[in-house]
Amino acid sequence: MKRLHLTRIDALRAAIAGANGVGARAAALALFEAGGRRVLPAAVQRAVRGAVESEAARLVMGVGLLEQGASTAGRLLETTAARSVAVQGVRAAGRQLLRGVAASAGAGALVDGGIALVKAVRQVRRGTMTNREAAVHVAREAGTGAAATAAGTAAAALLVTLTGGVAVPAVFVVGAAASLGAKLGLEAWLSHRERGAIRAQLQTA
Prior knowledge:
Blueprint: H1 8-23, H2 25-34, H3 42-62, H4 64-76, H5 80-85, H6 90-126, H7 131-163, H8 168-204
């Protein structure tokens, strides 16, 4: 299998989303037991779990940058918080999920925004970027980083909520992959909007 070429920042962002997805697994299981199991037929649940776990195993083996993160995320289930959520009821589980998604968003904003800030400061000092351009760049990176990590964690939690006890590495990989996809999609969308805005300015000039 061809290895994916990810940057360190991509791997870090994906690991954050995957780890938070694993951290929310107990809460998602509580929601599954409370009613999520009735959304999809049991046969579909088993098919989805099998397919996701099989593909996740291949990805963990093929993507070295994610392998350590998946192993680390698995150990999160041994913490007191992860063990206790499942017995606290639906409301507590829902709050736990929201906190996990919010934590992912904050971490994603910090990671992408921090890296963007360092680069922007260098470019401003060199005179290749104005202060306004730097502020817009940092805000854009922080925003897409936050949205991407939050989307990854939410996708992992939703998978467990609808299909039940998905294996920990699979939950991690789903969160990580969804985060990567969301970041790429957001970047492509924003770039498309910027190109459209530039064309509109040229036409009205």
